[in-house]
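User: Can you predict the 3D structure of DUF8128 domain-containing protein? Sequence below.
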Amino acid sequence: MALFGSSGYPVTAVSDDLRSHVDTATETITPTTDPSALNGDEHALVHVRPYGDSDGFDAAVEFVRDLYRSPNSETGDQSIASMEWWFTDGQLSQRFCTTTPDRFDQLLDSRYQNSSVHTPDRAFLELSSDEYVASARLHLRQDCAFPLSHQNASVDALATDPYTAIASALVGPDDTRALVQCTFMPVGKQTWYQRGTLASLRGHDVDGIAENRKEGTVKGEVNPRIVESRTDRLTAKDMQRQRGRPAFQTVVRIVATGPSKANVRTRMDDLESAFEEFAYPASEQEFVAEPLSGRALIDGITAAAGRELPMQGRIRRTLFGRESVLTDDELAGLVHLPNREINAPLLDWQRMEGGAGSPGAKHQFGDTTPEPSTQQPASSSNQSASDEPAATESGQQQAEYAPQSAEGMEPAPTDDHAPDAESTAADGQTGGVEHE
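Assistant: Sure. Here are the predicted C-alpha cells for DUF8128 domain-containing protein:
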C-alpha cells in the first residue's frame, strides 16, 4: 500500500505560512473538559486515558452507535467530531474533539468505565520552524458501497484491534511527533446508501452493486467467464447489511513532524502501512494514502488543525452520493478506546479504577487544570494559557461521574431488514455461471 516508499514520501520544511494557518485554525479548538468554556461553534479537545481492563475493541461498535445522532433529529445536530492518536515527547496519547464534551463523558461512563478525561496542554501538534513535516489524507480505493474490513464482516473480518498496528507505527524517536486523526460527522442512514440520483436510476445503488456481485465476477482474459463463488455471495451480504445502519462521512489524516527528514518519512511510511489492517480483499476495498505537498500540504494540515471535513458540493452529492461514508461497523475500528491487548506500554493509560476520592478518579467537568508539557506552541503568537504544570494524578480528589443515558442515543440497528445475500444465491451451476 505504500505508494511512495521509504525513499520518496514528500517531506517539507515547516514554513511560517503553515504555522500561521494552523494558529488561525485552532482558534476554534479549546483544550478543556468544561462545556461552559465553549462559545458558539468551538470544539472541546479532551485527553482520554483509557482503562486497560475495559472491553476495548469489543465495545467499539456499540460506542460508535452511541455517538450517532441523526442529522434529521429535532436537535439538527450534525456536529463534527474527531478521534485522535498523538505521539509527543516519547509518549502515546488518545484525544477526542467534540462540541459536547459532557455527552462524550456520559458515553465513556456507559461503554468504557474507569477511563478518564483530562485537559490537554495544546490544541494541535507543535510545528517548529526549524523542523520538517509531512502529511497525507487517506481515502477509499473503491466506492464506499464496498465495505472495509470490520469485526462483523462475513469475509476477511478484523480479528484483532487495528490500534495495535497504529500505535506501533506512531512510535519513533522522542523528538519526532506524529498524529493519526479520524474526523467524522453523522449522515442520513438511507440517503448515502442510494449513492445519488444517477446511481439509483441506473441500478447502481448499494443494493444494485450487491446483486451484481452475487452474480459473480469476470475472470480470465483469453477466455473470459463469469465465476460465482461463496466469497462473492458473502461480500454482497456485507454490502447489503449496511442499509439502515448509522453512517458517518469520514476523513482520515496522518501527520508527522520533527528535526530529521528521514525519521519523519519513516513515520509516514509506517503509518500508511498500518492502515493495511482495514483492507477487505474480497471487494478490493482499502485505504489509499494521498501524500500532500505544496499548497495542498498547508491546506491539509490546516484542515486537520481545525478538525474540518472536506466539503462536497450539493449538486455532486445529489447526483453521485456522499463520498467516504463509513458505517458503524467500519468506523468502530478507528473510533474506540483500547485495552491492554494492543500492547502499547507508551500509551497514557488510566492506571487505577475510578471512584470517589480514589487516585484514579475522573476529572469532573469544569476542572480545566492542564496536563504538564515540555512542548512549545506552534508559534509565539499563539501561547496557550494552559501551559502551566498540572497537579499529579495521585493528588486529585474527584467525585465519580454518575452513569447516565446519553441524550440523543438511538437504538442499535438490527440486521433483520437486510436481505440474506447468501441464502438467495443459487448453489448450482446455472446460465453459464461457474461456481468455485
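The CA atoms of residues 22 and 325 lie 26 Å apart. The longest strand covers residues 247-258.
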